[in-house]
Design goal:
By secondary structure, the protein is mainly beta. It is 12% helix and 31% strand. Helix 3 crosses helix 4 (169-175). 50% of the residues are buried. The site of molybdenum atom has 6 residues, from loops.
Length: 406
């Protein structure tokens, strides 16, 4: 344990060295390697440079033989070893834009505190991921099945716990890739080198790094469904689910819908953190300097998982009045949009807020509710406080104060 902690310290320091645009986030239990965007300025741009992109994982970065890396693909009775080099040589290369957001982004805004990593809004970024469509690999391997789920396993797995996440096979076939590049660079070690799964528009936890196995299964991973020691369902069935304090979520084989917000609204027990809930962040001004009065461009990013961010409103008076912002720039499914609004700024102190709505009309709630309110909080414009602090998308905690001089 002590050794792991030291190892982690070294790992975090090395990442901070390589990524000067990040800073460490407080981890309540000292269990994760976590760095996030150091400045709000990251959210004034569409593409997040690797230097500013957050990192989040639990076990140390695995040290395997990356040159002969292979992925075990299993369906039914078959187990095939796929050489990564062959995948790269023989299968098509594509790029997808994906807004990676930790499901714990905004966790630090829960009151009372929920423990674990106390993210503000820094655990999100948009990169171009290069790789091979999962569908192309499945087709070449002759996967032909009525099974509905694909389980991805990371090489950081240990005898005590396997890092396994299940996504619907339909999603995997639609737009997921086995990524080996990020923003035109080889995939950095901390982002999953030599290969990771990328699940566009879904919370980061689904995008398994250091991918070592893909298993076609008839349901989501549950304890006992993998021939492995230790826990293998924890990341799917226990953590990363939205539930009240002290509630023990049931291990399901399947779900009605993978829309995270739709699960919340349906009152289904303990929604899984699949697609990202509607969110926005102002990236400019940053609140770190004191601009002079006049026209100031308020600029930021807005996203909504599998939905489209359709509208963004901006307030410059702490929510008393709202103005429609203009959406502009690149428009890819699974990635955020830029928004802008020209503000005629007077001298003084101002609180800026942004609030996005998705194509289904879901709007970011104002604040996070109390533990007592439970899921009913949604009806009162509040995001439900939940034990793991997942998927929080309230707009008020992400506001900022700017001082304008004359
Ligand atoms: N194998 C493995 N994959 C993983 C993790 C992990 O601990 N192990 N962490 C997940 C979590 S919680 C997040 S938010 C994303 C973060 O991806 P990034 O570090 O490339 O930003 O990776 C996911 N993939
Ligand atoms: Mo995460």
């Amino acid at each position: 344990m002590a050794e792991t902690r030291e190892q982690r310290r070294e790992e975090i320091d090395a990442i901070l060295d390589r990524k000067p645009g990040t800073r460490e986030t407080r981890d309540e239990a000292d269990r994760y390697t976590v760095v996030g965007a150091a400045s709000r300025a990251t959210f004034g741009n569409w593409l997040t440079p690797i230097e500013e992109h957050f990192v989040c994982h639990r076990n140390p970065i695995p040290t395997g033989d990356v040159d002969s890396w292979s992925i075990t693909l299993a369906d039914g009775e078959r187990e095939i070893d796929l050489q990564l080099a062959d995948i790269i040589d023989d299968r098509p290369t594509v790029a997808v834009a994906h807004t990676m957001e930790c499901a714990g982004n905004g966790r630090g805004q829960h009151d009372p505190e929920t423990g674990s990593v106390q993210w503000g809004c820094e655990a999100v970024g948009t990169a171009f991921w290069t790789g091979t469509p999962v569908q192309s690999v499945l087709r070449a391997a002759g996967v032909d099945t009525t099974d509905q789920w694909l389980t991805a396993i990371g090489a950081d797995s240990t005898d005590a716990e396997t890092f396994a996440r299940s996504i619907p096979l339909s999603k995997a076939r639609e737009d997921c890739i086995l990524a080996y590049g990020m923003n035109g660079q080889p995939l950095p070690d901390e982002h999953g080198h030599p290969v990771r799964l990328v699940v566009p528009g879904w919370y980061g936890v689904n995008s398994v790094k250091w991918l070592s196995e893909l298993r076609v299964m008839d349901g989501m991973v549950r304890e006992g469904t993998l021939d492995r020691p230790g826990t293998h369902a924890r990341w799917q069935q226990e953590d990363y689910r939205i539930h009240a304090a002290d509630e023990e979520p049931v291990q399901n084989a399947t779900v009605e819908t993978t829309g995270t917000w739709a699960q919340l609204e349906s009152g289904e027990t303990a929604p899984y953190t699949f697609d990202e809930t509607v969110m926005s962040i102002i990236g400019q001004p940053t609140g770190e300097d004191t601009p002079t009065q006049g026209t100031i461009e308020i600029r930021g990013v807005a996203w909504a998982g599998d939905e489209r961010a359709e509208r963004v409103e901006v307030s410059t008076d702490d929510g008393t009045s709202w103005h429609d912002a203009e959406l502009f720039g690149p428009d890819y499914a699974g990635a955020w949009r830029l928004f802008r609004y020209d503000w005629d700024a007077d001298p003084g102190e101002h609180t800026l807020l942004s609030r996005a709505s998705d194509e289904r009309g879901h709007t970011q709630p104002e604040r996070i509710g109390t533990p007592e309110e439970g899921f009913d909080a949604l009806e009162n414009d509040r995001y439900p406080w939940n034990e793991g602090g997942y998927a929080a998308n309230a707009y008020r905690p992400n506001g900022l104060t700017v001082e304008i001089t004359d």
